[in-house]
Amino acid sequence: MAIRNCKKCGRIYADDNFELCPKCRTNEVDEFKKVKDYLYKYPGADIQVVSDETGVDTKKILKYLRDGKLEIKDDSPNLVLDCERCGTPIRTGRFCQKCVTEMQREFKSAVADNSPVKKSTTRDSDKMYIAERHKRR
Fold it and tell me: What is the CA radius of gyration of the chain?
């Protein structure tokens, strides 16, 4: 059984493939729920207002947006996220749809270029020359 230190509070806990101990994870979930509930009641709220009203840091709210856990409404003037590749304003995630499509195409072509070339199963040097010997007689 592996043990690990919590990245937030430093407590030792049994490793369960999370970076936070169960207590800190519960706190994170509670904070996200506060933000989500507040945005459900006030959908057009600004990030700073949400942070002030819920007590959750603006960096965490931006992280929720980048991770795709939250999304900015279509009609909202508060587009605070930009595509990390081209700088276009986006509502959620890290990249705009155009850049996602381009990167998928680039990754597919890179994978196709690096795929192993099939070699033939019969090589010329691995042959037995018995048939040729019989022909010579």
Answer: 28
d(CA 35, CA 45): 11
Q: Do the domain assignments include residue 103?
A: yes
SS3 6: coil
Instruction: For the chain, give the number of residues.
Output: 137
C-alpha distances out from residue 13 to 16, 30, 31, 77, Å: 9, 20, 21, 43
Residue 11 tokens read as: 């407590």
Rounded CA gap, 77 and 47, in Å?
12
Looking at the domain assignment, is residue 72 inside a domain?
Answer: yes
User: Which DSSP letter does residue 25 get?
Assistant: H
User: How many domains is the chain built from?
Assistant: 1
Q: What is the pLDDT of residues 110-121, one digit of tens each?
A: 888 776 666 655
Domain containing 10 equals 3-108
- For the whole prediction, is pTM greater than 0.70? no
